[in-house]
Design brief:
By secondary structure, the protein is mainly alpha-helical. It is built from 7 helices and no strands. The N and C termini lie far apart (60 Å). The mean pLDDT is 79.
């Protein structure tokens, strides 16, 4: 392209990173909670953060689940988001979407009972969490 190996390599890496980011944004749009569930996810965020910390510290859970939860805590602590905050709707919702996506996997792997045992919030909050993770028939 440019005639220089290093410039071509740099442009190729930048293009690949941009493409990967675009694919990730599309994936976030596809897995985002529908309707009022996104508002519920944002409202539940303090309880969910305590839940994630408790689950990550529970040594009875599978190691893969605890590693995912620890990585999620690291992601949430970083000031850099997948989607910049100036992008409408998704900018502020990407954390809630990522948390929801990871929690769906945790519930499928560890079970809803393990999550219920560590839930620090109200029964209504747990019902909302169950809906977010794809288990609407779960009873608190």
């Amino acid at each position: 392209m440019t005639g220089s190996f290093w410039w071509d390599l740099l442009l190729g890496i930048a293009g690949a990173l941009l493409l990967a980011w675009l694919v990730l944004v599309v994936a976030l749009v596809l897995v985002r909670p529908r309707g009022g569930l996104l508002r519920e996810a944002l409202r539940l965020l303090p309880d969910v953060l305590r839940l994630i910390r408790r689950l990550a510290a529970d040594e009875t859970l599978p190691r893969g689940v605890r590693i995912r939860l620890a990585l999620l805590l690291v992601y949430l602590a970083l000031p850099i988001d997948l989607v910049p905050d100036f992008i409408p709707v998704l900018g502020y919702a990407d954390d809630a979407i990522v948390v929801t996506f990871v929690l769906r996997g945790v519930v499928r792997r560890a079970g809803l009972d393990a999550v219920r045992a560590h839930w620090p919030g109200t029964d209504d909050g747990f019902g909302a969490l169950a809906r977010l993770t794809g288990f609407p028939t779960a009873t608190p």
